[in-house]
């Protein structure tokens, strides 16, 4: 547990509400700003929600002359960091992060996440795994009791290209459903990740023990990483439709 001062400091900084347009729906994204101190190493997530967090981060760095170092989780995050003139680093130089902030595609009641809608799951998981605190920001559409209730596109699985067919068959055979190669939109052929791999979207049929499934899928030869983040998020901030913030912490066992 990071302690009371960490959390009270976070809530002090949940200080800005921004309207954004996403999927044609007007929604309110409430920003978390979890940097409570100077000289922090921050993991910067990927996707559309995180853009607002980085805007805010950059504003504070400028206003308060904070000395912050950012580690990106994707090409997109790297561009975002550079665009704002923030200090860019990597895991070679900063293998330990103070906090990583990222979005999610779906969050269940136990804070298990589906990530990788933007195809950046592997680097996102690595960076989150290197952070002392992993914080998620999401809008109310990502809030679920059980995975699959809100997010219908399945669990992304990054695979080595030559293995996509055997991995897809192995996942369907062992866990049911269908694991489909993600196709690019403005390019012929499949989506190619920042790591030059392919993505399978596993459309599962029913709720499972996600911890076990995550481990089992990772053991299939050719699998690089899954978009199941189990036991990693320490707190999720949901921006609600009415502009309020809902906070979810992991259940106490
Ligand atoms: O996992 C991700 C990218 O790989 C994103 O964090 C996730 O897809 C959420 O994105 P958005 O904020 O655009 O809804």
From TrEMBL:
Record keyword Iron-sulfur present: no
Signal peptide range in chain numbering: none
Catalytic activity: aldehydo-D-ribose 5-phosphate = D-ribulose 5-phosphate
Pfam families on file: Rib_5-P_isom_A
Gene Ontology MF term list: ribose-5-phosphate isomerase activity
EC number: 5.3.1.6
Highest taxon listed in the record's lineage: Eukaryota
Keywords associated with the record: Isomerase
InterPro entries: NagB/RpiA_transferase-like, Ribose5P_isomerase_typA_subgr, Ribose5P_isomerase_type_A
Pathway participation: Carbohydrate degradation; pentose phosphate pathway; D-ribose 5-phosphate from D-ribulose 5-phosphate (non-oxidative stage): step 1/1
Gene Ontology cellular-component annotations: cytoplasm
GO biological process, one term: D-ribose metabolic process
Family per record: Belongs to the ribose 5-phosphate isomerase family.
HAMAP family reported in the protein's UniProt record: Rib_5P_isom_A (MF_00170)
NCBIfam families, alphabetized: PRK00702.1, rpiA
Stated name of the protein: ribose-5-phosphate isomerase
């Amino acid at each position: 547990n990071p302690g009371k001062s960490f959390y009270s400091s976070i809530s002090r900084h949940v200080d800005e509400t921004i309207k954004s347009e996403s999927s044609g729906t007007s929604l309110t994204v409430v920003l978390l700003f979890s940097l409570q101190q100077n000289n922090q190493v921050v993991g910067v997530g990927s996707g559309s929600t995180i853009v607002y967090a980085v805007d805010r981060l950059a504003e504070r760095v400028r206003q308060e002359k904070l000395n912050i170092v950012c580690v990106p989780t994707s090409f997109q995050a790297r561009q975002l960091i550079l665009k704002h003139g923030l200090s860019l680093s990597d895991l070679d130089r900063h293998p330990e992060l103070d906090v990583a902030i990222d979005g999610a595609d779906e969050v269940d009641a136990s804070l298990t996440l589906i990530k990788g809608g933007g195809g950046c799951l592997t680097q996102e998981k690595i960076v989150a795994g290197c952070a002392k605190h992993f914080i998620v920001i999401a809008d109310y559409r990502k809030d679920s009791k059980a995975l699959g209730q809100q997010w219908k596109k399945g669990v992304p699985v990054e695979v080595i290209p030559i293995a996509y067919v055997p991995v897809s068959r192995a996942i369907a055979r062992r866990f049911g459903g269908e694991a489909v190669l993600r196709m690019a939109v403005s390019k012929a052929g499949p989506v190619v990740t920042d790591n030059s791999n392919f993505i399978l979207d596993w459309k599962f049929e029913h709720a499972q023990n996600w911890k076990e499934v995550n481990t089992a899928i990772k053991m299939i030869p050719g699998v690089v990483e899954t978009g199941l983040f189990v036991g990693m998020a320490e707190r999720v901030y949901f921006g609600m439709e009415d502009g309020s913030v809902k906070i979810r912490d992991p259940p106490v066992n």
